[in-house]
Structures are given as C-alpha cells and as structure tokens.
Amino acid sequence: MMKTFKLKSLIICFENDERLVQQYIPIIDGLIIDREDDLQQWIIEAYMNQSYKDFFTLLNQEQSKLILQVKITKETNDPAFFLCKMIDMNDIENNMNVLFKGSIIDRNDEVYGNWIKKIEG
C-alpha cells in the first residue's frame, strides 16, 4: 500500500557550469507518494504558478537527474533529499503541476552525499 505525504516546500538543486545552483520554487500545493515498490521509488507532485513553465522546460532539456530538497508534512521538519527525474508537466488553468520520480538519497552515498553536505553548508 502506498503512503502519501503533504509537500510543504521545494528547492531544485542542479549543476550549472560546475557550480551548485539551488532554486526555491514557491508551491501552491503538493504531494509526495511512497510507491513502496522494489526500487524504493517516490512520486513528487508540485503544484505551482505557471510562470515556472519555461524554467522547468529548460531544466528538463538540460538535466537528466535533479536533486530535490523537500520538506514533508510541516515546514519545521528537516529537509529530505531525492534524486529524481522530471516525468511530466501539465497546465492547469493559470497554474501547472510538475511530476518527478526518484528515490531518497542516502547521506552516506559517495557522490550525492557530498552534494547534500554542500547544500546544507
């Protein structure tokens, strides 16, 4: 059985010219779904203003994998980090949603664990 959680905040992290970029995305609403499958994949849906469409279109063309820094359920919770791929983007009246599929990053991972340390400062 899948578990669903409320997405409270979203920061997209990616590399640009070998430097780490963190882009805060103000969301209207969102969900995080633990698929509880063999691959331990999660679905993240972020509902936001359509003004971010060009950003996500370009990001999807240039980046195959993204690190998402999210807060789940409450703003006061510690952030969780996911290694994701953008899987869909849909217009919904004057807003849009963006869907990601990925897995939680282990902070001890040699490559992505170091990214998290850079992000957290």
Would you kindly provide a written description of the structure presented here, covering whatever features stand out?
This protein has 121 residues and is α+β, with helices and mostly antiparallel strands. It has one domain (3-120): Pnp Oxidase, Chain A, CATH 2.30.110. It has two helices and seven strands, in the order ββββαβββα. Strands 1-3-4-7-6-5 form a six-stranded antiparallel β-barrel. The termini are far apart.
Question: Nutshell version of this structure?
Answer:
Helices cover 16% and strands 54% of the residues. The chain is an alpha+beta fold and 121 residues long.
Terminal Cα span? 36 Å
Number of contiguous helices: 2
CA-based shape = globular
Give the SSE string: EEEEHEEEH
Please give the oligomerization state of what you see.
single chain
Sheet-strand content, in percent, reads over 45%
Spatial ordering of strands, largest sheet: 1-3-4-7-6-5
Q: From the coordinates shown, what is the CATH architecture?
A: Roll
Instruction: Indicate the structural class.
Output: alpha+beta
* Main beta sheet strand tally, sense and closure: 6 strands, antiparallel, barrel
Q: What count of structural domains?
A: 1
Q: Uncertain segments of ≥5 residues (pLDDT<50)? A: none
Average pLDDT value?
90
Indicate the CATH topology. Pnp Oxidase, Chain A
User: According to CATH, what is the class?
Assistant: Mainly Beta
